[in-house]
Structures are given as C-alpha cells and as structure tokens.
Amino acid sequence: MNASELKQIILEELGKVAPGADPNDLELDENVREGLDIDSFDHLNFLIGLHERLGVDIPEKDYGKLNTVNEILHYLSAVKL
C-alpha cells in the first residue's frame, strides 16, 4: 500500500467519526481532533476503525503520537501492513 492509498483510508475513517466535517479540508499537520471538532471518544473510534480496516494494532501508549494526518501516516507507514 502506498502513501496516497493510506492517506485516503485515513481520511475515509476520519469521515466516519466526523460526518459533519470534511477531512479533506484538514492541513496535514493540523490537529485532527481540533480541526474536525471531535472528542476523545470519536478519536478512539477512528483508531479502532483503522485497526479493523488495516489489521494494525495501535497500542494505547501510542495514541498521543497520532494527532495529525502526517503523524498517523508516518506511524502506519512504519508498521508492516
């Protein structure tokens, strides 16, 4: 899976937890929770969605590292998908 495909999956999963917002409007270094006005529960559901869709385990200790689309992209790119 290339970076473009991975980014698309991230944006699609963000769209599921923030249906009233457009994740495509996010800057890559913008805080996802602030930019989409989602709470910690929605963010957790987003991470669960990534897990289910990509089959990647994201330990709770890493949640704080996943604040922007770029951070999420780099994190998931480092994991073998």
Name the features:
single chain; 81 residues; globular
Give an overview of the whole structure.
By secondary structure, this protein is mostly helical. The chain has helices at 3-17, 32-36, 40-54, 69-78. The longest helix is centred in the N-terminal third of the chain and has 15 residues, at 3-17. The chain is globular.
List the helices and strands and how they pair.
Blueprint: H1 3-17, H2 32-36, H3 40-54, H4 69-78
Helix pairs in contact: 1-3, 1-4
Largest sheet: none
Ends: how far apart?
Answer: 8 Å
* Number of β-strand runs: 0
- Give average pLDDT, whole number: 94
Helical stretch count? Answer: 4
**Portion of residues within helices:** 55-70%
β-sheet strand percentage: under 5%
Briefly characterize the structure.
The protein has 81 residues and is mainly α.
